[in-house]
Structure formats: C-alpha cells, structure tokens
Amino acid sequence: MLIRFVIAAVLGGLFAAGAMSGAQAQQPISSGQQAANPSGWTFNVAPYAWMPHLSVNSTFNLPPALGGTVSADSSVGFGDILSHLNFATMIAADAQYGRFSVLTDFIYMNLGGTASQFRSVDFPNRPSIPISAAVQTSQGMNMNAKIWTLAGGYTLLQGEWGNFDVIAGFRYLGVPVSIDYSLGLTLTGPRGNGATFGGIGSVSGTAALWNGIGGFRGSIRLGDTKLFVPYYFDAGAGGSKFTWQIASGLGYHTSWADLSVTYRYLAFGQDSGILRHLSANGPMIMVNFTF
Is 70:33 a contact under the CB 8 Å cutoff? Predict the structure, then answer.
C-alpha cells in the first residue's frame, strides 16, 4: 500500500501539473524567484500526488452479430483509487522567457477492477432495455488513461502581488476502456441469428479526443508572507463537446522548492462515442522545483 501511495503521489503530481503546471510555473514569480532573472530562461518541474474521485459514463458497441450498444457507469472514490491503481506515471514541465511561457504535462494511469454497473442495452429502432442491478453479479472496469496538455502563455499582469497569465493550446485524452461482466440474464438480439448478450464476458472500446483549450493561470502572494494562492482555469472543445478544468489552493515558498496543497477538477463530455463523460476531482499535494 505504501509503494502504491508513493507511485500515486509522484504520478498524481504529474497529472495535476498538467492542469497546475501553469499555476505552479507562476509560483516562482509570486515568491520573487523570477525577478532574479527577468530576461533569462526559467524552468519548472512539478511532481505531485492527486487523489481524485473518478466517474466515467461510457457506451460500448456490441458485437456485429448483435448490433446495438450497452451503456455503463463506473466510479472509484478518492479513498479507494490506490487499491485499483496498477501503475501510473506523470510529468509536467514549464519554461519561461520574459513574459512568454510554454507548459506541458503528460499523465498515464492504469486502473483495474473499478466498480461498474450496466444501465441499459439499446438496439436500433427498439425500446431501450434496462438492466437491473440485481442481475449484475460482477462488474469491473479496466482503464488506461493518457492525458497530454501543451500550451503557450503570456503574462498580462505581474507585480509584487503575483501574476495573471493567459494561455492557449490543446489537450489530448486517450482512454482504452473495458468492462468484465457477469450477468444473471441473457438477451437475444433482434437480428434473428441467435446472437445473445449476457452471462460472462467483456466489452471494450477506445476514446481518442483532441481539444483546443484556452484559459488563464497565475498566483497571488499573501502579503509579506511566504504563502501564495496558485490558480488555474481552462476550457475548450474539439473531439469533446466540452472539456474544462479548474484548480486552486494554498502554497508555501521554501529556499529549495514551492509546496502547495490544491483541489482540482477535470472533465470531458461527448454526445456520442464510447466516452460520454469522464470527470476527476480531488485534493493534490505538489512540489515545484525551479532552476
């Protein structure tokens, strides 16, 4: 359990750094580090631990012999995510030159056996067939999530109080998803070929979404203390109908790094495709190194 927590902390940190890379990258400004070299390059690397509550609404295509789709809801609480975490890697980086900056973040999370429940089976031109929870004896979602963010930024406002940047770029979400199931029922397809759905089996699919994003980021220094408030927001669309994320919290500047505790929310939504909705929200602990 301790090993999983350490892994999750490092990789979680990398995930939040995607959303918070902007905010983290600005922490040195609020603490005065950026002012020491106003015309040169500044680089930030920010590992962190993110313990989110994960919620996924998905729709899987049934085999061609059956046709139709089956929809499912899956979730794992922030207190249970470590028990379902197989592997994770996260890394975020930020480079600044004067008022211009570039941030990037990559996260990979491999989860297995998270709680899932089918909602209904839908065949073309037929009424939806609900699936009762009473007949779902065993369900488990397996997911490999990859999220990559790349954006450029420009500092509009900067002073002893902190800074405010505007950002624009893109975010990619790649998610192969599968659900292993055991159902206490069997449904016969409408094509008259004897194809059925039920018993023991699995369904799977992959979502690959590219979205343009825009937003803002920065930090606010709290008086003459070493405390600061990092903040980040972006929203966009493209492969998704809508995607957005927001994060903020409280940070503390030390001589060797900036430490912060924040809360982050990230979501993707679609009207069609395998991934109808994905959201992750929870607390993060971050360490931002500047050089």
Answer: no
- Between vectors from CA 47 to CA 46 and to CA 48, what angle results, nearest 5°? 115
The Cα–Cα gap between 191 and 271 comes to 26
Nearest to residue 286, comparing CAs of 59, 130, 94, 152? 94
The residue-averaged pLDDT of 203-211 equals 95
Residue 232 CA, distance from chain mean position: 14
- How does DSSP assign 216-263, residue by residue? EEEEEE-TTSSEEEEEEEEEEEESSSEEEEEEEEEEEE-SS-EEEEEE
- Judged against a pLDDT cut of 60, whether residue 37 lies above it is answered with no
Is the domain spanning 2-290 CATH 3.40.50? The answer is no
The mean pLDDT value of the chain amounts to 85
| Contact call for residues 59 and 71 (beta carbons, < 8 A) | yes
Q: What percent of the chain has pLDDT over 70?
A: 87
Q: What angle do CA 239, 243, 245 make, to 5 degrees?
A: 150
